[in-house]
Amino acid sequence: MISLASEMTDSKGRHARGWLFYDAECGFCARTARWLSHPLHRRGLATAPLQDPRVAALLGLPPHELLQALRLVLSDGRQYVGADAFLALTHELWWARPLAWIAKLPGGSTLLRSAYLSVARHRRCRHRVAHVHFPHNTRQEGLRP
């Protein structure tokens, strides 16, 4: 497996403390990533398209699996997929923290995961996720920093 710290740098050549990977061929995904890029950059997080050839090697996933969900990879090796990636970002953005609070309520995580999957299924792009089943806990560990 490739080290995140050695392989991925931000647009200014600095090592980011984490990366939000998105589907650049999906208009909704690309607009959302552009909208989030500035606040994330201020917090040491960078954005990059899942189509970047380094990403498949970094994550060790085949290309068709890469494009099925938003992915957040932190330099310490923690990895979040789909709704869990979005929820991990809520801890970085003050205005998104109410979603983290909702996730802690009974049924809140299920509600937010359902909302994420609904948006993902209805996005207008080539790589739709309607046929994908995300496990209840899509947080993953294991990338080396």
Describe, in plain words, how this protein is organized in 3D:
By secondary structure, this protein is α+β, with helices and mostly antiparallel strands. It has one domain (4-140). The chain is 43% helix and 13% strand. It contains seven helices and five strands, in the order H-E-H-E-H-H-E-E-H-H-H-E. The chain has a five-stranded mixed beta sheet. The longest helix is centred in the N-terminal third of the chain and has 16 residues, at 27-42. It is globular, with a radius of gyration of 14 Å. The protein starts with a helix and ends in a 5-residue tail after the last strand.
Structural class: alpha+beta
Major beta sheet, strand line-up: 2-1-3-4-5
Beta fraction of the residues? 5-15%
Instruction: Sketch the topology as an H/E string, one letter per element.
Output: HEHEHHEEHHHE
Residue runs with pLDDT of under 50 for 5 or more positions: 1-7, 128-145
Tally of distinct domains: 1
* Rounded mean pLDDT score: 78
Number of helices: 7
User: Based on DSSP secondary structure assignment, what is the total number of beta strands?
Assistant: 5
